[in-house]
Amino acid sequence: MVDSKREIERKYEATAGTRLPDLSRVPGVSAVVHRGVTELDAVYHDTEDHRLAADSLTLRRRTGGADAGWHLKFPVASGIRDELREPLSDTLPRSLAGLVRSRVRGAVLVPVVRLRSARDVHHLVDDRGEPLAEVAVDEVRAVRLTGGGATATWAEIEVELADGGDPALLDAVERRLRKAGIRPSASASKLARALAETGPGAEPGAAPEPAKKPKKAKPGKKAKPGKVKAARAEEAREEPAPTTAGDHVLAYVRRQAEAIVALDPAVRRDLPDSVHQLRVATRRLRSALRTYRRILDRDATDPVGRELKWLAAELGVDRDQEVLDARLRGHLDELPRTLLLGPVRGRLRIRSTARRAGSRRRTVAVLDGKRYLALLESLDALLTDPPLLPAASRAPGRALPRALLKEYGRLAKRVGHALDLPPGHGRDLALHEARKAAKRTRYAAEAARPALGRPAKRFAKRMKAVQSLLGDHQDSVVAREALRTLAAQAHAAGESAFTWGLLYGREEAAAAARERELPGVWERASRPKLRSALGG
């Protein structure tokens, strides 16, 4: 089992022999306890083109200290990282290998840098002797393990907040350090500094340089998506602001592709809402490829779209179960105890556990599969050599509204068709199709928002209202199917099916209410003159 720790720290420049100021004068700190010097030896692993470093991830095998083992760090925010740990072993643990797979793909992880540090540790404690933060003065020697074995040495100060500590303490400590002439480090991590100072042509003490941007593939040649992935952060910084319709569509496609890669480890860690977010990114990307077919050649994007549809469907197995579980638990929580007849909570828990365990295994298996990795490679290739059509060079104010209004027209037809049907199974299916069209229209507006501004923002908001209502209706349809199954199982086991029948009736009434609300919601969403509002 992977151990996880939220690391909140700040780094500061130092020189050999740097002495800390008196930190016992920091508000809330009662004493500074010296814990001595520890020798640390860490070997950092990455691909040869530094794909992990390009996304600010660090993977190391460290000996020495109280936390010897394998460590994988993911950035959360400035100065905040999630550190995942596995016990010391000769080879990379399988659990951590899975967490970097969306970045590494088929490339081999190799040792790139070795850092040996003499760490002088001090603990800041409160009046009860409880640790508030750890302050370490590190004297570091870095050796490049690839490309000639260059070395670099430096000293730095790390201030790491204790678990559950108040981040305001870090501000107070920083004020004391700055007053003593100690300034924040220019490097985000030791690895970033080591790569910068031991790279080709680098000079010790030089500021870290971002990963080298690879050359774009020539038209007609197959791209090398792995290299593109390695320099994606730098590429985003260097690219000029979007000006054409093609620029805007590609920027949106790139953001969703990056989201898929970034959310992959969160899904593997089973973090809250991660499956949902990954599925949304997948659907947004597929929607953009379908909506903006006059911008990107569908001969190239349709195969990618089919694979995105497959991935979204696979993720839906886990996500749909998660939504259903939460909905049914919420209904039970709302009922008075006198209406909970039989072991209803236990039966729901058993059903949910069995189904979610199976769906989660299936989700992880999908992420481990060759088909998923091939999709990631295809996305990188698409972005490296985008199949732009002539309309891509036009002004976004002309090309994008046309595509957006086309999606709106499709949605209007589906809503009208559903409202013309009598209540029942046929209308349920039609409303579900309308929901998918509303979602696609909303995503199209979100993609166009950077170019079209406030009109697209308002339009997306209205489409979201339609989508939310239709989504709640569809969730009710799915919940009723599950409740009927639960009632049948309870009856077969000799239990009362009363509670399940009661919830079924409530869901039926809720669905009918959503159907009555739809005409009004749709009228408000479609009232503005879209063509003039969007500049079309």
What do these coordinates show?
This protein is α+β, with helices and mostly antiparallel strands. Helices cover 54% and strands 17% of the residues. The protein contains 17 helices and eight strands. It has an eight-stranded antiparallel beta barrel with strand order 1-5-4-3-2-6-7-8. Strand 7 (131-144) and strand 8 (151-161) form a beta hairpin. Helix 13 (396-420) runs antiparallel to helix 14 and helix 14 runs antiparallel to helix 15. It is globular. It starts with a strand and ends with a helix. The model is unreliable at 205-237 (pLDDT under 50).
Question: What's this, in brief?
Answer:
The chain is α+β, with helices and mostly antiparallel strands. It is built from 17 helices and eight strands.
Number of strands: 8
The Cα radius of gyration reads 28 Å
Unreliable stretches: 205-237
- What's the total helix number? 17
Helix content: 40-55%
Strand order of the largest sheet: 1-5-4-3-2-6-7-8
Q: Determine the N-to-C terminus distance.
A: 55 Å
Largest sheet: 8 strands, antiparallel, barrel
Strand content: 15-25%
Give the integer mean of the pLDDT values.
89
SSE succession: EEHEEEHHEEEHHHHHHHHHHHHHH
| Overall geometric form | globular
